[in-house]
Write a structure and sequence with these properties.
Structural class: mainly alpha
Order of helices and strands: HHHEEHH
Oligomer: single chain
């Protein structure tokens, strides 16, 4: 395997969960000898998306599924937490990128 590929390290801007995800995916690709010079970019996108997903899920867990919203008339109502619709977007993005790397069940069957 290319020495440059072996020396890859996760981007420094990622938090611990993102770095751990990056390392886990990179190891799988290396072990299966599928690592490519362009893969770190895709892996970074997966790791960042997973990091964002975890942060959002933690926020929703902490703040609850609903939140108070005060409209222009001054009435306060309960509304769905604003992060709830964003979470599935990150999960879809993760699935898409994992598929590009051949790391989903469906992509491995091909």
């Amino acid at each position: 395997m290319d020495k440059v590929l072996i020396e890859r390290k996760p981007p420094t801007h990622l938090k611990k969960v993102g770095k751990d995800t990056w390392i886990r995916i990179w190891r799988v690709l290396e072990e299966e000898e599928k690592a490519d010079i362009n893969d770190p970019i895709v892996i970074e996108a997966i790791a960042f998306s997973y990091q964002m997903f975890r942060d959002m899920a933690a926020n929703v867990k902490k703040e609850g599924l609903t939140m108070e919203y005060t409209n222009k008339a001054g009435a306060t109502n309960l509304t769905k937490h604003t992060l709830i619709p964003e979470i599935p977007k990150y999960l879809q993005q993760i699935r898409q990128y994992l598929g590009e790397l051949g790391l989903t069940g469906a992509s491995r069957k091909k």
